[in-house]
Design brief:
The chain is α/β, with parallel strands linked by helices. The protein contains 16 helices and 14 strands. Bound molecules: uridine-5'-diphosphate-glucuronic acid.
């Protein structure tokens, strides 16, 4: 298939590379010319395991190309995927201006039948608007179909998720585009669900909100565990073995973050409101998430008493493991709030230090390249991201380098018994 992908963010770039990897001809479009130049030269603007090799290979083999011209992308392809950002607005609703802009650009460039696929996360009924917009701005009377194909990849596992999806959801209004979608996804060997567009759009918001709810649920259970002396990991294991519940996304933490869950929750609440339903359950999910961060920080302030003039080591800045993404990162919030209370920080992240510099103030933060040196002179250590390499930390060395052996683990990376044996005062989540 000849495919255009408009937008080379996480979703667009990974989707384009994986489509090329299975043999399709892909042209990725981005309005940022510097980014296009970088990609054409084999550079990758994000860290995502396996992506760089895949991009380089498919560029070299001629199946993956980049351009800043939407017209060029539209001209060279039969199926056009829209994968541009849909950022949140102040009131929790979604900014759809990028989608609308792209719809107009596609309309202006269309000279033959095209399948236009929305892959960005959008409110229910956006497909209808995109179709109306294309119809309005298209100067020729060529036919087109607008369909919905939400993406379920996780950052940090994007290539793995895209190559091995649990399911592929496609929302269509006519049968015409079905064959093209079957052909595109045939190599992925996953079940394809064909449904109507509104349902497909809703599946995405409902899925992300459900997963966020699962995390808030276990975080609320973690609070009960702390108050009662139970262990949240034992509870998660015990309930997760029920296949109806499942163990995944039941890791208690200092709260969820990232560019998807917080945004999609707010959007889904707003969408429901607009449709006349007060989704109080999801408002509670947000509340629990905010309270989880407060409870974690309170453990630090209750123990250290005064933060002014204290030095705290923070392990992890990314919003989760395996990524350099710091957008809406709980780790960044921890840093900002500790700084606000007067602490100085020594921070480390295997991949996200550069991006964190853009969000954290220049003063009061020391970036430490070697994770084993973060603890030097610290009054406390905080684990804020679940990078597996933190488990290899030389804890005895860290303990000896600190003014007092205090560790706050927001990701339950370490074993409480081992930490006690090493002489740490160790506080974690729900254990
Ligand atoms: C999420 C969904 O998992 C994807 O299916 C979806 O495609 C994506 O949003 C999107 O809409 O684009 P992502 O934001 O990349 O993916 O990251 P997750 O792995 O879902 O983690 C989100 C947050 O929840 C992170 O801060 C993570 O640390 C936290 N989390 C996750 C927990 O606190 N506990 C868990 O058990 C799992």
């Amino acid at each position: 298939m000849n495919i255009a992908i408009i937008g080379t963010g996480y979703v667009g770039l990974v989707t384009g590379s994986c489509f090329a990897e299975v043999g399709h001809n892909v042209i990725c479009v981005d309005c940022d010319e510097a980014k296009v130049k970088m990609l054409q030269g084999g550079g990758i603007p994000i860290f995502e395991p396996g992506l760089e090799e895949m991009v380089k290979k498919n560029v070299a083999e001629g199946r993956l190309n980049f351009t800043a011209s939407t017209a060029e992308g539209v001209e060279q392809s039969d199926v056009i995927f829209i994968a541009v950002p849909t950022p949140p607005l102040e009131d929790g609703s979604v900014d759809l201006s990028f989608i609308e802009r792209v719809a107009r650009d596609i309309a202006n460039a269309m000279t033959s039948y095209k399948v236009v696929v929305d892959k960005s996360t959008v409110p229910v009924k956006t497909g209808e608007k995109v179709a109306e917009t294309i119809k309005r701005y298209c100067k020729t009377d060529c036919e087109f179909d607008v369909i919905s194909n939400p993406e379920f990849l996780r950052e940090g596992f994007a290539v793995e998720d895209l190559m091995n999806p649990d399911r592929i959801v496609v929302g269509i209004t006519s049968n015409k585009p079905e064959a093209a979608m079957r052909e595109i996804y045939e190599p992925f060997n996953a079940p394809i669900i064909f449904t109507d567009i509104n349902s497909a759009e809703l599946i995405k918001h409902a899925a992300n909100s459900f997963l966020a709810m699962k995390i808030s649920y276990i975080n609320a259970v973690a609070a009960i565990c702390e108050a009662s002396g139970a262990n949240v990991e034992e509870v998660a294991h015990g309930i997760g073995m029920d296949e109806r519940i499942g163990r995944r996304f039941l890791n208690a933490s200092l709260g969820f973050g990232g560019s998807c869950f917080p945004k999609d929750l707010s959007a889904f609440i707003r969408i429901s409101d607009d449709l006349g339903y007060d989704f109080g359950l999801l408002k509670e999910v947000q509340k629990i998430n905010a309270a989880q961060m407060d409870r974690f920080l309170k453990k630090i302030t209750d123990t250290l008493w005064i933060l002014k003039d204290k030095t705290i080591g923070v392990l992890g800045l990314a919003f989760k493991q395996n990524t350099d993404d710091v957008r809406m990162s709980p780790a960044i919030e921890v840093c900002q709030r500790l700084l606000k209370d007067g602490a100085s920080l020594r921070v480390h992240d295997p991949k996200a230090m550069e991006k964190a510099r853009e969000l954290l103030p220049a003063e009061g933060v020391t970036y430490v390249d070697d994770m084993d040196r973060v603890a030097e002179g610290c009054d406390a250590l905080v684990v804020a991201t679940e990078w597996p390499e933190f488990k290899e930390l030389d804890l005895a060395k860290a303990r000896d380098a600190m003014t007092a052996p205090l560790l706050f683990d927001g990701r339950n990376l370490f074993d409480p018994a081992e930490m006690a044996q090493l002489g740490f005062t160790y506080k974690c989540i729900g254990r």
